[in-house]
Amino acid sequence: MIKLFDFPRGDTFQYIATWEGSQLSEMKSQIRDSCNKLIAEVKITATEESGKYHFSVDDTENWRIGALYTDIQRNTNGIIESSELMKINVIEGVTV
Fold this sequence. Notes:
The protein has strands at about 5-10, 15-20, 25-30, 40, 45, 50-55, 65-75, 80, 85-90. It is mainly beta.
């Protein structure tokens, strides 16, 4: 199953996700287009709650309108797991 959400270009891209038992050093996330071109590295920071992380990209001004994709990857001692795929429907913002 793919999670889908609309996102206004130019806003700060951000969300909170929980991955129980994970360490910040094990996590990474990227945003790519449908041709697998890297659009952004996602900044990940730990929150005060164990296993809960803040994901963000500050500069989205140049993201093109349309579909982008992201997930979260965890590498624990060489065992790689990925989260559910998320589809970001980039739309034009109204207030600029």
